[in-house]
Amino acid sequence: MAVTLLIPSALRSFTDRQATVRVEANTVGEALAALTDSYPDIRRHLYDDDNALRPFVNLYLGETNIKTTGGTATPLKDGDEVTLVPSIAGGRRMRGFALDACRPASAPSVAGGTGGRP
After folding, report:
1. Dist. CA 113–CA 73, nearest whole Å
2. Which of 10, 25, 59, 109 could join 116 in a cystine, given CB atoms 3.0 to 4.6 angstroms apart?
3. pTM of the full predicted structure?
4. In terms of pLDDT, which residue wins out, 115 or 36?
5. Do 74 and 92 lie in a common domain?
6. What is the pLDDT of residue 86?
7. How far is Cα 116 from Cα 11, in angstroms, rounded to an integer?
8. Which domain covers residue 27, as residue numbers?
9. Do 80 and 23 sit in the same domain of this protein?
10. Which pLDDT tens digit goes with each residue over 21-45?
């Protein structure tokens, strides 16, 4: 069955900048295998050294997280869309401080002070 994988911008550099990738698959696991066969460099961002899906990688079939529908064994039908959503952690470094991009400016900085401002 033809299904579409929706690739987030953070991973598009591993899919030749493609925002969507069409594959033939009957399950989410088969779809990911087809994706990593076509774009091997994306594999390390999706799977750990034991070939397990990394815990911070979330996959949605429509609006449903596949963790609630059977994981990578979740069946697909023709025309389904699977969205890859890697969790974003951390922030950026500025002048030696680790800044949390989602932290309000009034919140204490990881490095001390307020708002991560030097």
Report:
1. 48
2. 109
3. 0.72
4. 36
5. no
6. 85
7. 28
8. 2-86
9. yes
10. 999 999 999 999 999 999 999 999 9
